[in-house]
Amino acid sequence: MLFDTNIGVAVRCTNCGKLAIRNISLFNLPKDGFNEERCGCGRVLFKIKSGDSKSFRVHINCIACGKEHLYTFSSKLILSGKLKILNCPSSRLDISFVGNRELVRNVAIKHQKDLQELIKVLEV
Ligand SMILES: [Zn+2]
Ligand SMILES: [Zn+2]
Q1: Mean pLDDT for the chain?
Q2: 68 CA distance to ligand 2 centroid (A)?
Q3: Per-domain residue ranges of the chain
């Protein structure tokens, strides 16, 4: 049986507002330090590292409140082909999608419109 060890992470850049979808291989994550993913504009989108052998941690720069939030996942959950919606603990808004690559892509594109509305509201 072949496992897909790549996950998708969709997050919106806090600098330029673009939706970024990255593929991350969970088995290539550094044990020390973080793997930083940057937007085309240079801003860090999120940082990811492995925790113990069964989990990994993601720090996401939040588009909603401007802070950095930490989320911990079990690798099993993510690799089982599911999708996790991450929300901002302050504003409760959905800020990121993590999980199965196909699902992440589909859901992120679907939510793109909602997020654009959200950003308009935040910019007022
Ligand atoms: Zn950017
Ligand atoms: Zn937040």
Answers
A1: 87
A2: 7
A3: 6-118
Q: Are 100 and 85 in contact (CB under 8 A)?
A: no
Distance CA 79, CA 57 (A): 14
CA 118 to ligand 2 center in whole angstroms: 13
Q: What is the CA radius of gyration of the chain?
A: 14
User: Could you tell me the two tokens for 50?
Assistant: 């492995």
pTM, two decimal places: 0.84
Ligand 1 center–CA 38 separation, angstroms: 8
Distance (angstroms) between ligand 2 centre and the Cα of 112 equals 18
Distance, in Å, from the CA atom of 66 to the CA atom of 90, rounded to the nearest integer, reads 10
Starting from the CA of residue 40, give the closest ligand. 1
**Would you mind telling me the total number of residues written for the chain in this entry?**
124
Q: Hey, what are 104's tokens? A: 């992440």
Burial of 6 (0-12, 13-18, 19+ CB in 10 A): middle
